[in-house]
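Final report, closing paragraph on structural work. Over the funding period we assembled a curated collection of sequence-structure pairs, and we close with a single example.
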Amino acid sequence: MKIIKNVLSDNLYQECLDTIRQLPEDHCWASSSVTWDPYLRHGFLGSCIFNFVPEHLRIKIVDELRYYLPLYKDPNKSSVKFCIWQPMSGIPWHNDYGHDLGATIYLNEHWDINYGGIFLYENSEQEGSGEYTNNVNALIPQKNTMVINDRTEHHMVTPVGYDIPEFRYTIQIWAESKE
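Its predicted structure, as stored:
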């Protein structure tokens, strides 16, 4: 996993945060309970809702991230979604099989470890094998931090607490590698 802090400019970060907080009132959202494969929902009671980032904002995000994702073809075709992790939502251990790259940008201005929603991962760069080794790293979501999984490393998100003061907000990016 690659972890990059302060990945978006302050203005773009604020525009993303304002938009994700406003979108639920204006758009239809999909739910992990309905659309994710059963193995990606196993053991979690809550639902993560998601929606595509509006095109004008997607273009700005992709443009600012070109430096961090240089090996990916046509970033304009990448999938960029807002995710709202509701109470008790999470995702079990998986490796993003079928995707060349997955990236997550955390949008909450503050996230306490006691809120849950902790990103757990096995870093194949440290272990060298890409296989599950029982050595797990944890990352508490931090404002404007991006995590890149470009080696199908195993990871998960622990359940979000049931009494959190606000939802866990993220941007999820999927991209294709060069052939």
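The chain has a mean pLDDT of 87. The first strand starts at residue 2 and ends at 4. We thank the funder for supporting this effort.
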